[in-house]
Amino acid sequence: MSNKDLADLIFPNITKTVEDYEKMYPSRNGQVVTRIAPSPTGYMHIGGIYQAIIDNLIAKSNKGVFILRIEDTDQKREVKEAVDLIKEALYRYDLIPDEYELDGETVGNYGPYVQSERKEIYHAFIKHLIEIGRAYPCFCKKDALDELRVMQEHKKLRTGYYGKYAKCRNLTVDEMIQKIKSGEEYVIRFKSMGDFEHKFKFHDEVKGDLELSQNDEDFVIMKSDNLLPTYHFAHLVDDHLMRTTHVIRGEEWLSSVPKHVELFETFNFELPKYIHTPLIIKKEGNSIRKISKRKDPEATMSYYSENGYPKEAVIESLMTIINSNYEEWHTQNPDKSYLEFNYDPSKMSSSGALYDLEKLNSLSKDIISKKKAIDVCNESYEWAKKYSSSLKEMIEQDKEYYTNILNIEREQEKPRKDIVNYSMIENLIWYMYDDKFNSRDKEYEWKNITDKDEIKLILDTYFDKYYDINDDKDTWFNKVKLMCDELGYASNIKDYKKEPEKYKGNVADVSTVIRVSITTKSNTPDLYEIMKLLGVSRIKDRISKIK
C-alpha cells in the first residue's frame, strides 16, 4: 500500500488537487491584501479593533484589499451572536472590509470567507501532504499523550510530540490503513523535518530580524472528527489562496512562527509579511499587566458603545499606541484623517502597548468639544435610543432646545470641554429641564454666601430691579456689578483682594448665588446663556421654591 492509498482512504471524496485550487484563486498581481480573522467565540475585543485598524491602514494606503474572514474552526466554543457583534464593531468604526461573507451576502472572488465552509479545500491540501509523506494519522489516545507530557516534564525535557516521542510517525502505511479500517480514532499530524537545535532567520515587521529554532513538532493539523483543521493549518491555506500579503496578529503567535514557516516551505508557498503586534497593557497602581477580558470592562468594544464614546476618540486613542509618532503627526495635521498617516510597524512598541483610559477621556473631550452642536445632538440621540430612554425622552421633548443647550460655549475659539462621552450628558444638563429639576432631591451648592436671608435679598433685588432678558452679555454683567455696589459687595475682584474687610463679598460670590439658585450647581457653563434659554418665568418659579 502507498501514501496515495492512505490519502484516498481518509479522503475518498476529495478529487480536486492543490493545483486545481491554485487556478481557482489566481494571483492578485502584487496587490496588497490584509485580513482580519476573528473567531466567533464571544464579543469583539479591543485587540481585534486595534489590529483591524492596522489592517485597514495598510490596505487603504496601498490601494489594496481588506478581507474579513471568520475563523470558526473551534465550533464547540462558538457563540451564536458573535458574528453580528464582530460586524457591528467593525462597521461602527468604519472598518468596512472589501471582501466578506455576512448576512448571506458574499462580496469578493476568493471565498468562502467562513472557514467552516472551506472544509473541502482544507481536505485537498491535507490529502496532498499525506500523499507526499508529510502528514499521517496519529492514533495516540489522550491518556498516552498526558503520560508523555508528565514524563517529559519530570525529566525536564521539552514537552511535545516530536522526534522519538512521535510514535505514530514510525507506523507503516499498511499499519495505518489497518487501524483506520478497524475503526480506531485518529487525528492528522504534520510530519516535521525540522531540527530544534538549528536556527533560522525570520523577519518580523515589528520585532525586526530574529533567530528562531526550527520546528520539529509533529503538530495536529486536523482533529479527530475529520472535519475542520486547526488554526495552524487553516491559516496557511486561507492566507495563501486569498493571496494575503500582510498578516497582522498578536505577539502571542510569535512562538508559532516556526510551525507556520515549515508549512509554507513544505508547499513552496511565498511567506506573507508578519506584523506581530505588542500586547495591549494597562497600568494598575505601580504595576503593568496585560488588559484582561475578565477584569477590565474596557477590554470589550461594547464598553465604548455603551458609554457613548465617539468612534473618532476610540480610533485616535488606539492610533497613539499603534505608532509612537502618530500624536506628533496628528498635531501637525489636525484636519487630516488617520487613514492619511504613514503607518510604520517598526515604530510599534516592542514591550507592550500601554492603553490609558485617561488618555481616551482627554481625547474624547477634545473631539466632542470641536463638534457642532447639531452633530452632538444627533450622535447623542442615536446613542440614547439604544442605551438611555431618559436622555432620549429629554431630547424628544424639544430637539432644538436640546441643541441650544449643547451649543453653550461650543462653537467658539476655545470651546468648553466638559463632555467626555454621551452617557455623561444627562447628568450635566438635567437642571435645564423642569421635570428633572422639580422631581430631584436637590442639594444647592452654596459657597461663600449661605445665609438664607442674604440669598433672598440678592435674588429679590436682582430679579426685581436689574435683570432684563433682552440685555446683551456685557450689559447683563454690568448690572450684576451695579447690584454688588448697592448691596455692599465688591464689583471688582482686585478691589476685594486689596481690602476684603470693606465688603460682604465680591461679584463672583453674588454670581454664584444666582447660578446656584437656578441650577443648584456652583459650576456650570455660561450663566448668561443658561438664563436666556430658561426664560424669566421658569427662573422665577425656581427661585420661589428655594427654602
Outline the secondary-structure elements.
Layout: H1 3-10, H2 18-24, E1 33-36, H3 46-61, E2 65-68, H4 82-92, E3 100-102, E4 105-107, H5 119-131, E5 135-138, H6 142-154, H7 173-181, E6 187-190, E7 199-204, E8 208-213, E9 220-222, H8 231-241, E10 246-250, H9 257-267, E11 273-277, E12 280-284, E13 287-290, H10 302-306, H11 311-322, H12 326-332, E14 353-354, H13 357-370, H14 373-387, H15 389-397, H16 399-406, H17 425-429, H18 434-439, H19 452-466, H20 473-487, H21 493-498, H22 507-519, H23 527-534, H24 536-544
Parallel strand pairs: 1-2, 10-11, 12-14
Antiparallel strand pairs: 3-4, 5-6, 6-9, 7-8, 12-13
Helix pairs in contact: 1-5, 1-7, 11-13, 14-15, 14-16, 19-20
**Which CATH first-tier class of the domain at 3-12 and 119-277 would you pick?**
Alpha Beta
Tell me the number of helical segments per DSSP (H or I, 4 or more residues long): 24
Q: At the third CATH level, what is the topology name of the domain at 3-12 and 119-277?
A: Rossmann fold
Structural class: mainly alpha
**Shape assignment:** elongated
Largest sheet: 3 strands, antiparallel
The CATH superfamily label of the domain at 3-12 and 119-277 reads HUPs
Cα Rg: 33 Å
Total beta-strand segments: 14
Q: Are there runs of 5+ residues with pLDDT below 50, and where? A: none
How far the N terminus sits from the C terminus, by CA atoms, comes to: 100 Å
Q: What portion of residues is helical?
A: 40-55%
Residue fraction in strands: 5-15%
